[in-house]
Design a protein that fits this description.
heterodimer, A: 345 residues, mainly alpha, 13 helices, B: 180 residues, Four Helix Bundle (Hemerythrin (Met), subunit A), 7 helices
C-alpha cells in the first residue's frame, strides 16, 4: 500500500509476537480509558457528584486500585457448579474480544491482519461470546444465572441481525469487506463531486450508523438493553455466581468489547484512521493513525455511554419488538435503497 | 489455532508454508477427533454441545488452512454463532439446570451408528468419485468476490433453490408454532 516503514526485516515469529503484544495493549488501553472517562467520571458528573477522587490525580488510578481489589478476593466456586465449564466461560468471552480486535486497522501498514473477509470475520467472532455467556449461566447451577443467560442469548441473537444488516449498507457502498478497503473508500470517496472531506459513510449511511449503534448497545447488554443482568429481578444474571478474578475477566471483556465495537463503528462510518486533507497512503498515518482512531473511538463510545446512563431499561417484549419489527425492516430498506443507488449513481 | 493460521496468507508456494500447514493440520485433526469422540460418549448433553463447538472450530481452522477464508468465517458465524447456540438454548430451556441425561445414550445409539456409517460411505464415495487424487490449486487463497460472482452466475439455480427451501422451512416453523 505504501513504502515500508521499518528499516529492519523481521522474521515471521517476531512480527507475530509484536502483533500479539500490541493486540493486548489495543484491547486493554481503550477498555481502561472508557471505564475511567465514562463509567467513573461522566456518569458521576451526570449525577452531580465527583466520582473517584482519591487514587491518583482526579482518581485516575482508581482502575488499578479496583483491579488490585478484585485480585485479592476469594475465588468462590458454587458447590453444584460444573467446574470446568464454569472456569472456562470467562475465557471464551475474552477469546471473542481478542479475535475481534485483530481486524481493526490503525494505519496503512499498521494492522494486525489484513484479510479479505475483514468486517465479516469481526461479525462472526463477535458471536462466539454468546457461547461463553450460555456456559457461564448453565455451569453456575443457579436459576438466576440460567435465566440471565437465556435472556442474554435471546437478546444477542435478535440484535445480531440488525448489526450485520446495518453493516451491509457500508459494504455495498465501499464494494469490499476488507477493513482497509472500507477506510480507503471513505478517504478517496466523493459526495456529489465534492471530495475535500472524503466520504465518511456516516453521512450517506446515517440510518445504518444509528441502527449499528443501537444494536451494539444491545450486544453489550448495557442499559437500556440490560434485561439479562436486571439487578432488581435476577441479581446480575449470568454473572451472579462469579467473584474476584473471574468476575474481573467478564468486566474487562464487557468494556474491551465496548471499545472494540466503538472502533468498528469508527472505522466503518467515521473513516477509521484517516483524517481529511492528507494523503491516505502517507507513511505519517502509521504513526498518527492509531491516535486518530483512538479519538474517534472515544467519540463513538461517548454516544454509547451517554445512552447507557440516560435511558431506563426496556421490558423484554419491547426489546424483542424493537429488534424484529423496527430495526430489521429498517435495515433491509436501507440495504435495498443503498443497492439501487449504487447501481444508478 | 485460528489465530496462528490467520496471518499466514502469503502465497503458499514455498516449502516452509506447506510444512507449517501440515503441522497445523495435524494438531487440528488430533483435537477434532478427540473432541468428536468425547462428544458422542459424554453422558451430559450440554458437554456434548460444547465438544461440538470444538469440532466445528477445527473445521473452520482447516478451511482457513486451505485458503478458503470466506467459507471458514461463514462456518464460525453460522455453525458456532447460530446453530450450536440454538442447540444450547433449546437444551437449557427444556432440561432445566445441571444434570446428566441417561436416555440419550442408550436406545438411539444403534440408529446413530447406522446413520453415521451411511453418511461416511455416501459422502466419502461421492468425494472420491468426483475428485479422486486430483491436487487442489493452493497457489493463493480464494477471494470473497470470486465466490460471490460464481454464486450469482454459475450456481444461481441451486442458490435460488436453497433460498426457496429455507423460506419453506421458515413458513413451516411459523405454521407449527401458531397451530391454535
Amino acid at each position: 500500500m505504501s513504502t515500508l516503514t521499518l528499516a529492519v526485516e523481521l522474521a515471521y515469529w517476531q512480527q507475530t509476537t509484536i502483533r500479539a503484544v500490541v493486540a493486548l495493549v489495543a484491547v486493554l488501553i481503550p477498555a481502561g480509558t472508557l471505564v475511567y472517562l465514562f463509567l467513573f467520571k461522566m456518569m458521576s458528573f451526570m449525577q452531580s457528584r465527583l466520582g473517584p477522587m482519591e487514587a491518583g490525580p482526579y482518581g485516575s488510578l482508581q482502575l488499578l486500585a479496583e483491579v488490585g481489589k478484585f485480585l485479592q478476593k476469594e475465588d468462590v466456586l458454587p458447590r453444584k457448579a460444573d467446574r470446568v465449564v464454569f472456569k472456562a466461560a470467562p475465557f471464551v468471552v475474552l477469546i471473542s474480544t481478542f479475535l475481534l480486535v485483530l481486524v481493526i486497522p490503525g494505519g496503512p501498514d499498521a494492522f494486525f491482519i489484513d484479510v479479505d473477509t475483514g468486517i465479516f470475520l469481526a461479525l462472526a467472532v463477535s458471536s462466539i461470546s454468546v457461547i461463553g455467556i450460555l456456559m457461564a449461566g448453565w455451569a453456575s447451577s443457579s436459576k438466576y444465572s440460567l435465566l440471565g443467560a437465556l435472556r442474554a442469548t435471546g437478546q444477542l441473537i435478535a440484535y445480531e441481525l440488525p448489526l450485520v444488516l446495518a453493516v451491509m449498507g457500508v459494504v455495498i457502498q465501499a464494494g469490499t469487506l476488507n477493513m482497509q478497503g472500507i477506510v480507503m473508500a471513505q478517504a478517496e470517496g466523493e459526495i456529489f463531486g465534492f471530495g475535500a472531506i472524503g466520504n465518511p459513510f456516516i453521512i450517506t449511511q446515517f440510518l445504518g450508523f444509528v441502527i449499528f449503534l443501537i444494536a451494539v448497545q444491545a450486544e453489550l447488554t448495557q442499559p437500556p438493553f440490560d434485561m439479562p443482568v436486571a439487578e432488581s429481578e435476577i441479581v446480575t444474571g449470568y454473572l451472579t455466581e462469579y467473584t474476584g478474578m473471574r468476575f474481573l475477566l467478564f468486566f474487562i471483556g464487557e468494556f474491551a468489547t465496548a471499545g472494540i465495537f466503538s472502533a468498528l463503528a469508527a472505522t466503518l462510518f467515521l473513516g477509521g484512521w484517516y483524517v481529511p486533507g492528507l494523503d491516505p497512503t502517507d507513511n505519517l498515518f502509521n504513526v498518527i493513525g492509531p491516535l486518530v482512531l483512538m479519538g474517534k473511538i472515544i467519540l463513538v463510545a461517548f454516544l454509547i455511554f451517554w445512552f447507557r446512563f440516560t435511558y431506563p431499561r426496556f421490558r423484554e417484549d419491547q426489546l424483542q419488538t424493537l429488534a424484529w419489527k423496527v430495526l430489521i425492516p429498517l435495515s433491509l430498506v436501507n440495504i435495498v435503497v443503498t443497492g439501487v443507488l449504487k447501481v444508478l449513481v | 489455532m485460528i489465530l496462528a493460521a490467520l496471518p499466514g496468507f502469503e502465497p503458499l508456494v514455498s516449502g516452509d508454508a506447506v510444512v507449517a500447514q501440515n503441522i497445523a493440520f495435524g494438531i487440528l485433526a488430533v483435537v477434532m477427533v478427540a473432541a468428536a469422540l468425547r462428544m458422542v460418549t459424554t453422558p451430559n448433553v450440554v458437554h456434548a454441545a460444547l465438544y461440538l463447538v470444538i469440532v466445528l472450530a477445527g473445521v473452520a481452522g482447516i478451511f482457513i488452512l486451505l485458503g478458503a477464508e470466506f467459507v471458514g468465517v461463514t462456518q464460525v458465524l453460522v455453525y458456532i454463532g447460530a446453530i450450536v447456540v440454538l442447540f444450547l438454548f433449546g437444551i437449557m430451556l427444556t432440561r432445566g439446570a445441571l444434570g446428566e441425561d441417561e436416555d440419550a445414550a442408550t436406545e438411539k445409539r444403534r440408529m446413530a451408528l447406522m446413520v453415521g456409517v451411511l453418511l461416511l460411505v455416501v459422502t466419502g464415495g461421492a468425494l472420491l468419485d468426483s475428485f479422486g487424487d486430483a491436487a487442489m490449486d493452493r497457489s493463493r487463497p480464494s477471494l470473497t468476490a470470486e465466490i460471490g460472482d460464481s454464486i450469482f452466475s454459475q450456481y444461481i439455480v441451486p442458490f435460488e433453490a436453497v433460498s426457496v427451501l429455507l423460506l419453506a422451512a421458515l413458513i413451516g416453523a411459523i405454521v407449527v408454532a401458531r397451530k391454535e
